[in-house]
Automatic annotation (TrEMBL):
Family membership: Belongs to the metallo-dependent hydrolases superfamily. ATZ/TRZ family.
Species of origin: Latilactobacillus fuchuensis
SUPFAM superfamilies noted in UniProt: Composite domain of metallo-dependent hydrolases, Metallo-dependent hydrolases
Protein role: Catalyzes the hydrolytic deamination of guanine, producing xanthine and ammonia.
Designated name of the protein: Guanine deaminase
GO molecular function: guanine deaminase activity; zinc ion binding
NCBIfam families, per the entry: guan_deamin
Organism lineage: Bacteria, Bacillati, Bacillota, Bacilli, Lactobacillales
EC number, as in UniProt: 3.5.4.3
Keyword presence, Zinc: yes
Catalytic activity: guanine + H2O + H(+) = xanthine + NH4(+)
Pathway entry: Purine metabolism; guanine degradation; xanthine from guanine: step 1/1
Needed cofactors: Zn(2+)
Length: 451
């Protein structure tokens, strides 16, 4: 039977429009969607409330708690969870070669993969992340285990088996043997996910790690596969000075142009980082309707530049937020949205106070907390083309119920949201729903009629 939540909620419809509604009635219907939203001002409010009470399907969220859309992590390397926070002072290629590739190679061991993936998916759910776009490792078995765990724990997941076969940029013990193997492995993975997850809670993603790790033939074949299947694609794009220059040296073009030429830059593509884009690249990404996963923590370590979030949001590119576990150390999109705001402020103000104030930074770069909230919710959903990320009729019921930190002053709704997003620990995320199903609850004191 349908349940009805009585709750106050925040939802971002666009980067600069966050809705707030008090004590609304939100009906979750059997197919996992929001079937009805009745606000207090609605003439049917009392009638609907009484009906929900009578059928005993009403859940009244306790005072001081708010309903938010579940967060969407648009870039996460599942096998890197064991090294969160480690060696972030190294340059990107050094970190990849000396820490990341050796760690990912261990995921040939299915027991190890199972232990890590259980902990990661559970941790993300407890942090309010209801959907994630994952890079796995190169191992189909471990990646299928990740899919199984996401389905068991109830997280919406988009998973790629990582392709990397360029002998010049990958270690002998952690690479695909050649283009043909990389292709057949990817096809097998896609089939297996589609067979094992017919409800599509978990979906496959074509995943060339990034241009440096892939041979040219492999990029060609993966591009053809993307055209043939119309599946999502994920990769890293113009991520750092070294990586951007590597692609210029090899192809004489930027990452975005090369990806587009191979058929890997389209409306199904999610490009991680993109800190080094030229103006022409930005235009190309917009024209092709590809999305960008902004990973503010990771970019601080490896990006060699601050992503122009505000400029690209204003140009209406599709952008969401990624943790980039473990180029970013935090599994929490709260931490990442806070960092997105902070980084944008630094881009605006500049970093060297010895320069004149008006030439230190880039004007109009700061994003608001509302814009960061949009990125973590509706922006991520638009990037994945999923019907989620907002609390709206017909949307998937992917939610988090969050307790506000103690308050010692009266706040406007706008300040309440900012306070909630910045004064936050996972302890305050009391309940998480995916597809209208309760997939995590902290304690049972988040609703009034708790038994
Ligand atoms: N570029 C290519 N692979 C990776 C990775 O695993 N993490 C990050 N942050 N960047 C990458
Ligand atoms: Fe990454």
């Amino acid at each position: 039977m349908a349940i009805t939540l009585k709750t106050s909620y925040f939802s971002a419809n666009s980067p600069n429009h966050v809705e707030f509604h008090e004590q609304s009635l939100i009906e979750l219907i059997e197919n996992g969607q929001i079937g009805q939203i009745i606000h207090q001002s609605d003439p049917d409010y009392q009638k609907t409330l009484t009906a929900a009470q009578t059928t005993d399907q009403l859940i009244t969220i306790a005072p001081g708690h708010y309903l938010l859309p579940g967060f969407i992590d648009l870039h996460n390397h599942a096998p890197q969870w064991p090294q969160a926070g480690i060696a972030l002072d190294r340059p990107l290629n050094d970190w990849l070669n000396h820490y990341t590739f050796p760690l990912e190679a261990r995921f040939a061991d299915l027991d190890y993969a199972t232990a890590v993936y259980r902990d990661l998916v559970h941790t993300l759910l407890t942090n309010g992340t209801t959907s994630a776009l994952y890079f796995g490792s190169i191992h189909n078995n471990a990646n299928l285990k990740l899919a199984e765990i996401c389905a068991q724990l109830g997280q919406r997941a988009f998973i790629g088996t990582v392709v990397m076969d360029n002998p010049e940029q990958t270690p002998a013990n952690y690479r695909d043997v050649n283009s043909a193997t990389a292709l057949s492995k990817t096809r097998t993975f896609i089939q297996a996910i589609q067979n094992q997850h017919p409800d599509q809670l978990v979906q496959p993603v074509i995943t060339p790690r990034f241009i440096p790790s892939c041979q040219t033939e492999t990029l060609t074949q993966l591009g053809r596969l993307a055209q043939e299947t119309q599946l999502r694609v994920q990769t890293h794009c113009s991520q750092s000075t070294w990586e951007h220059q590597y692609v210029l040296d090899r192809f004489g073009q930027t990452d975005s142009v090369v990806l587009q030429q191979f058929g890997l830059l389209n409306q199904h593509a999610v490009l991680a980082h993109a800190t080094q884009l030229t103006t022409a690249d930005q235009q190309l990404i917009k024209t092709e309707q590809a999305a960008i996963a902004h990973c503010p923590l990771s970019n601080a370590y490896f990006g060699n530049g601050v992503f122009p979030t505000k400029q690209l949001l204003d140009q209406q590119l599709k952008i969401g937020l990624g943790t980039d576990i473990a180029g970013g150390y935090s599994p929490s999109l709260y931490t990442n949205l806070q960092t997105a705001v902070t980084a944008s402020q630094m881009r605006q103000d500049g970093v060297d106070a010895r320069l004149p104030a008006d030439s230190r930074g880039v004007a109009d770069s700061r994003i608001t907390t509302e814009e960061a909230f949009y990125l973590a919710t509706a922006g991520g959903a638009a990037s994945l083309a999923i019907n989620a990320g907002q609390i709206k009729l017909g949307m998937l019921a992917d939610f988090q119920i969050v307790q506000a930190a103690p308050q010692f002053t009266t706040l406007t709704p706008a300040d309440q949201l900012t306070h909630l997003l910045f004064n936050h620990t996972a302890q305050q995320i009391k309940a998480v729903y995916v597809n209208g199903q309760l997939v995590h609850q902290k304690e049972q004191n988040w609703y009034d009629n708790a038994q």
